[in-house]
Amino acid sequence: MALLVQKYGGTSVGSVERIEAVADRVLKHKQQGDDIVVVVSAMSGETNRLIELAKSIQGTPDAREMDVLLSTGEQVTIALLSMALMKRGLQAKSYTGSQVRITTDSAHGKARIQDIDTESMRADLDAGRVLVVAGFQGADEHGNITTLGRGGSDTTGVALAAALKADECQIYTDVDGVYTTDPRVVDSARRLEKITFEEMLEMASLGSKVLQIRSVEFAGKYQVPLRVLSSFVEGEGTLITTDGEISMEQPAVSGIAFNRDEAKLTLKGVPDVPGVASKILGPVSEANVEVDMIVQNVSMDGTTDFTFTVHRNDYDKALQVLEVVAKDLNAKEVLSNANIAKVSIVGVGMRSHAGVATNMFKALAAESINIQLISTSEIKVSVIIDEKYMELAVRALHSAFKLNDPTAGVSEA
Amino acid sequence: MALLVQKYGGTSVGSVERIEAVADRVLKHKQQGDDIVVVVSAMSGETNRLIELAKSIQGTPDAREMDVLLSTGEQVTIALLSMALMKRGLQAKSYTGSQVRITTDSAHGKARIQDIDTESMRADLDAGRVLVVAGFQGADEHGNITTLGRGGSDTTGVALAAALKADECQIYTDVDGVYTTDPRVVDSARRLEKITFEEMLEMASLGSKVLQIRSVEFAGKYQVPLRVLSSFVEGEGTLITTDGEISMEQPAVSGIAFNRDEAKLTLKGVPDVPGVASKILGPVSEANVEVDMIVQNVSMDGTTDFTFTVHRNDYDKALQVLEVVAKDLNAKEVLSNANIAKVSIVGVGMRSHAGVATNMFKALAAESINIQLISTSEIKVSVIIDEKYMELAVRALHSAFKLNDPTAGVSEA
């Protein structure tokens, strides 16, 4: 008998029919003898409806009142799902964030969970009840309703699983797991059975939008096994877990991530003296532009070339700032390119496998793909290439690292 | 400077525009120096939408979860109205029933208020804030969300006014006050400036649907001056208050109430012995039929006639029961009539004015209206007449008691 926390997003509870389907799934797990805590989001569309209402009254709605308003979305879902469970003969009980006592700080709209009182939930679980908890919400120490911001329901799920010491936190979404890469780009992309938290974080931050980064960080920190599954298709999904849970046999690379949301800017011929990097990036960040990759080449003749990437939406703004900086620093010229793509290989296996980066570069060279920039972390190698070669590069790497071969994938522990 | 509790029903907050109009009215009162606590219902239509959702899932929705669901309706309104007040430069703060700490019993769907914690509200009022409280809801001692049932928002308003010792509880509705009788029946019907709680109770229970009986009882019990006003038209409305507040000059009759929702049943020739009334009405109430008027005529030849009225919806059921009872008691026959109307004169002045009933009967006789039944209380005389004479009777009585004459109405104290 396991204690499972199951989280269903807005699409999974988007209609009465889908709520009934969730109830069916919960019933099945309960019949298998598991204890279940369900975390739900607002029905899809509801949050946007409420935001529109608020904005039609107050251009920038008051943050406290916005939370009072938005929290009703999940409250509707918990009541309806509890009813659907009772119709199936289960004992069910709903909890708002305040009722659980999910205590947060007072940062309305982006509150952070500080404490979860499990006493009442524990008693209800012992009494055989299925608990249905409103995701995305809590209350501060004064009883003001707060919301956790984007991806907040995932965070609620993970936090409850940690507080209740659940065996698994299951995140039901519209995809059936984490893939070696995007199946729309590579036909032979394969669902991973397991992946580590660190790999998942790299995959997520590189554009794989299965889970919110914050909830993965949270799960990693509290060592809550996290499983991504489909609400609509039966399957095992992908288990996100700690290093130790994953076989030693594991291959160097677990997945290929990519995105074409970035643009590249280079300042050529800036003086190679201490402080120049901050003179360049200071004004950029003051303009609220976030920088992703930063590469500085070796110096020649006392000057160097400084390159960085930004989100493509910030491209124009960053370019304007850089033109000014270039004059101040007497730089030779500003180069820029928005037609780029970032392709990355991710895998904790890299730590113990030599030559992974070399294999990556070799595979790209075999397709005559020029590498414009390289950046590495302990479990990731990213390259910037011409946008038009992105799909080709992803397919070449997927094949080079044998990711289509299940026996070479992340094997079961 | 007065402390006012203002309650706005679903129609008054039924759209963004109407919420803005409520905010304008609150601003005006606040600018006049009053402290304001606003109690609001769910936006009109919202409660029905939620009930439909629930019923589509669970035929008879679980009572606890229904309250979790329905309470979101008012929660949306308090957030939106608070935003509208802030847009006008007021400091505003919303309170759910749980946040006030409106403690109720655990009778979901028809909970009774046990206690109201005014500490936090008092501090916010002292800080100059307008408080916006969700009507219709509270929480039991375990923190379960409860709702107060029909007319619950009126009850919340009156209970808050009592707890905060407010100067007045103002109920904003779609009518501009309490009238001497229904203006749709009598053109010259006149708005009353004042009426006593007792009169209001009689008027309400006789079909005048301006206020829920429960909130009037509550206001009377705690001596909270209650004012009925229109959300849409400026005006003084009608003040419902205690006897002492109303002039001694007051006329015998304050208003004419009527309804055609009843049916009459008579058992002729039953033995005039102790216990016969309960032998007749016992089976009727066991069939869950509520009885309104009961009249027993004097005995002749050891037998008597026993008549009572029931709601017209219960007419068939009551008749079935009575046929059986008639056999058991060897009654002569059962008479029944669903085409009747009840017309009543109401007024605390009757206590000190002799001959009021006589004047009533005289006025009806002048129109050749036959009286089928008579029943009286301390401040009311009701008669049952043929349904087709109802309007005629109401107009005759309205004129006989000079209710169209403002100087003869309930005068100001």
Q: What does this 3D model show about the protein?
A:
Chains A, B: Belongs to the aspartokinase family. Chains A, B: It is an enzyme of class 2 (transferase). Chains A, B: Pfam families: AA_kinase (PF00696), ACT (PF01842), ACT_9 (PF22468). Chains A, B: InterPro entries: AceGlu_kinase-like_sf, ACT-like_dom_sf, ACT_Aspartokinase, ACT_dom, AKii-LysC-BS, Asp/Glu/Uridylate_kinase, Asp_kin_monofn, Asp_kinase. With 413 residues, the first copy, chain A, is α/β, with parallel strands linked by helices. The first copy, chain A, folds into two domains: 3-173, 3-Layer(aba) Sandwich (Carbamate kinase), CATH 3.40.1160.10; 245-413, VC0802-like (2-Layer Sandwich), CATH 3.30.2130. Chain A has twelve helices and 20 strands. In chain A, strands 3-6-2-1-9-11-12-10 form an eight-stranded mixed beta sheet, sandwiched between helices. In chain A, strand 19 (373-377) and strand 20 (380-386) form a beta hairpin. In chain A, helix 2 (46-57) runs antiparallel to helix 3 (63-87), helix 7 runs antiparallel to helix 8 (213-221) and helix 11 (356-366) packs across helix 12. The first copy, chain A, is globular and about 75 Å long. The A-B interface holds A 16, 19-20, 50, 53-54, 56-58, 61-62, 64-66, 68-69, 71-72, 75-76, 78-80, 82-84, 86-87, 92-94, 96, 98-99, 143-145 and B 16, 19-20, 50, 53-54, 56-58, 61-62, 64-66, 68-69, 71-72, 75-76, 78-80, 82-84, 86-87, 93-94, 96, 98-99, 143-145.
